[in-house]
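ugh ok fine here u go
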Amino acid sequence: MQRSLTVQMAERVQNLDHEMQTTSTGGRTDHPGLVLKSRDLFGVFSAAGDVNPGEAVDHGLYRNCTRHLSRYALTLPELGPPVVLSSGVNEENTILFTDLTNSPVKQYDGSDLKSGALYLHRELLLFDGCLHEKITVVNQSNRPLRVNLALCWEADFRDLFEIRGVRWKRRGSFPEVGSREQRYLGLDGVERVTRISLGPAEVNYE
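structure:
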């Protein structure tokens, strides 16, 4: 099975007066992870292809130095965290690929699911102002498997100064939106938007 998704980012300037004051908390520097770059976009990801702020404070997908994705994680709710087999980026740093599998686990029916029964391939691409991802899932066991995939995401719209330790006295507002869109109206008068869209699933039987 293959499933594609797209993360879109946008900015719209509004006329607002603003005042910014800062304090510094020192910040910290973490391992950079796997880095993608395309024009005004860059992303810092884990070896699994996730954005995980618990692993590194600077993980995220950024546009013009503002973080449009502060969390982006593919999980297998019934099977636990995927195990990374291999990962890397292309020479142009525009494509990230990672190969994953499952940990051994006892399923709801009491049967044991061995490690390697499920193979996942993630391919993340920065192109045309968006993050595109294709997820491929292959059943390598000798029986049918029913597995749920969950994609968790958050957008905090913090800038690099905040992420590295600076704290603004004031922040903008988050208008109410749907589950696949997050908006942030900043004190600089710019409305920033992160939007998730899903493509149709393609299923192949062999």
